[in-house]
Amino acid sequence: MKKESYPKKININDPLMSLTFVGSGFGESIIINLGGKLLSIVDCCKQVAETDIKYNFSNIFSQSIKISKNPYLGFLLLTHPHFDHFQSLHKLVEEYGNDFVKVCLFNGITEAELAEIYKEQSKKLNHSVSAYNQFKHYSKLLNSLDNNVENSRRRAVAEDSNIFTINVEDKNGKKYDFTIDAIAPSYKNSKKFLSQAKFHNFINLVQNDKKLEQLGNIISVVLLIRFGKTKILLGGDVTSKGWEEILLKKKDDLLDPILVKSSHHGSTEGNPEQLYNEMFSDNHSRKKCKVIIVPFYDKGLPSVKTINMFKKYSLTYELTSSLSQKKDKKISSRLQNVKNIKLVATSQNYYKTFIVDTENEFSNMTPSWALKEHL
Ligand SMILES: [Zn+2]
Description:
The protein has one domain (9-356): Metallo-beta-lactamase, Chain A (4-Layer Sandwich), CATH 3.60.15. The protein is globular. 50% of the residues are buried. It is an alpha/beta fold. Helix content is 34%, strand content 23%. The longest helix has 20 residues, at 129-148. Zinc ion is lined by residues 82, 84-85, 237, 265.
């Protein structure tokens, strides 16, 4: 593995990028692969049984590294402090922590502050098993960060953070820009979150109190990826308060993406109609775009209302799988009740890879370095 910092310029054979969405029905992980040369990760949920190596996310990621043949590891990002996004992140940090050029956490609450809250609350945890488990995993992540990631590699990410800017040149000498920017959380929302988090305890924040749980989502990182003319939006779990700020300040950045990772597992809070209304300049760009939904079955997500809204805007959507046939069936039948909807569930797949070119189009070519969709 290359440990030196990433070069400002990368040569690739074919001007293609892949995005692999791994869903388990209760969380998500995303692998971004630039031309087989630069690999990054956004979030990491737990897969099914950890003993089942096939479904283990770090195994899927290792496979990506192997077929990409010694790529740079760009960044590892946790979008927000919720269970379904960090449950297995500590494992990746243990394995690759110092190989990533940057390890990024959402802005709003520092590791030290979290550790402090954890220390204060640890004695009170016994009464709530699920909250305890959530916290146990978070403290594992904090320990992994301390033990495996140099301070210089850590970043707090907020609305104006540029994570990467790289010049890319293909085999024909054509040049492209590759940038990844965070467009959320806003400093305003981060501040609000922090004051609430200090006031309440972190357990309540992530687990018990509905309102506080939502507050955890308003500090979710939203990423905008640009590769040549291609635009991709990864919505994290940000909810309407976060989108409001983005629409206020960065409306132009949102225009005409080819791929959108629907925020918050397709909830109505995470997918305000105004956002999708503003996102496309015309019907053509709207029809071209694909929305990816990583469901959260136990919370009844995605919501039927959101799916109907996608239909209204002629948006094609795809669901990642829950890895459980029973749960997949349940969601399929729930969504099939939505009028005039053709369900495009990825059913049995445990991950789904999309390949895009520099012209804001999907590519039919599957390069040797991209994970092929598992069937
Ligand atoms: Zn989530």
